[in-house]
From TrEMBL:
SUPFAM superfamilies: C-terminal effector domain of the bipartite response regulators, CheY-like
Gene3D superfamilies membership: 3.40.50.2300, Winged helix-like DNA-binding domain superfamily/Winged helix DNA-binding domain
Pfam families registered for this protein in UniProt: Trans_reg_C (PF00486)
Ranges where the Response regulatory domain occurs: 3-116
Molecular function via GO: phosphorelay response regulator activity; transcription cis-regulatory region binding
GO biological process, one term: regulation of DNA-templated transcription
PANTHER family: REGULATOR OF RPOS (PTHR48111), TWO-COMPONENT RESPONSE REGULATOR ORR33 (PTHR48111:SF1)
Name of this chain's protein: Response regulator transcription factor
UniProt keyword Transcription, yes or no: yes
Keywords noted in UniProt: DNA-binding, Phosphoprotein, Transcription, Transcription regulation, Two-component regulatory system
Domain OmpR/PhoB-type: 134-234
DNA-binding region per Swiss-Prot/TrEMBL record: 134-234
GO cellular component: cytosol; protein-DNA complex
Length: 236
């Protein structure tokens, strides 16, 4: 679940944001009337601070420096108008993203979920590196042993991963919950360009699936998305 703070103003885009996001179960939304209220919260438990930015008041841009000075998470400016100068100012002042929003909340929600996954991975890596900095690291249900080049799922070692299988699975785990294209897998995991008609990645994925099933006991957690690539499910 994504956890979001919206700093409220009187703008139309803010009213729409609150109305849309507050009805989504996968997004936990807290609305604050003023920037000063943010200091009453342990804002470290939130993933994203959203600053609505109206084209008349530009309230989001004015509030950005104060938020950025006290919050290390993701800060997003959401606006209903396009202005290159404002976008450049927002990004140079510390915003992580500047989103033009046309009342369809789906893309915005996917952005929030993406930020949440990345922050979760980062927090997990920070905690794990203190305990496993000599050999490997944990992400979710997976433990990657970088020295032995093996992967454990729920404390069970996946049987006999080849070098290519290990590299592909490691890359998918690092991008868990995200769609990874065959081009990316070929380049970053195998060190070569993906060519049309090349089925090597598909074959490797098939073998990885079988080996995960051996320790998991069934169920597909690496999903194929036609013409897009593969995704290792975050719901295991």
């Amino acid at each position: 679940m994504g956890r979001v703070i919206i700093i409220q103003d009187d703008s139309h885009v803010c009213r729409l944001l609150i109305n849309k996001l507050s009805r989504r179960r996968e997004i936990e939304t807290v609305v604050l009337q003023d920037v000063s209220q943010i200091f009453k919260f342990n804002i470290g438990i939130f993933d994203v601070v959203i600053l609505p930015n109206d084209h008349l008041t530009r309230s989001g841009l004015f509030r950005l420096p104060q938020i950025r000075s006290s919050f290390e998470g993701i800060v997003v400016i959401v606006t209903s108008y396009r202005n290159d100068a404002d976008e450049c100012l927002a990004l140079s002042s510390g915003a992580d993203d500047y989103i033009y929003w046309d009342e369809n909340e789906l893309v915005l929600i996917e952005r929030v979920r993406l930020y949440s996954r990345r922050l979760l991975r980062g927090r997990g890596a920070d905690e794990i590196n203190k305990q496993f900095n000599e050999s490997g690291w944990i992400l979710g249900e997976f433990y990657i042993d970088a020295i032995a080049r093996n992967v454990r799922f729920r404390n069970k070692v996946l049987p006999s991963l080849t070098a290519a299988e290990f590299d592909v699975l490691k890359f998918l785990i690092e991008r868990i919950g995200e769609v990874v294209s065959r081009d990316e897998l070929a380049y970053f995991a195998l060190g070569r360009r993906f060519e049309s008609g090349d089925r090597a990645i598909d074959g490797i994925i098939c073998k990885i699936r079988r080996k995960i099933c051996v320790v998991k006991g069934g169920g597909i957690i690496i999903h194929s998305l036609r013409n897009k690539g593969y995704m290792l499910s975050a719901e295991l």
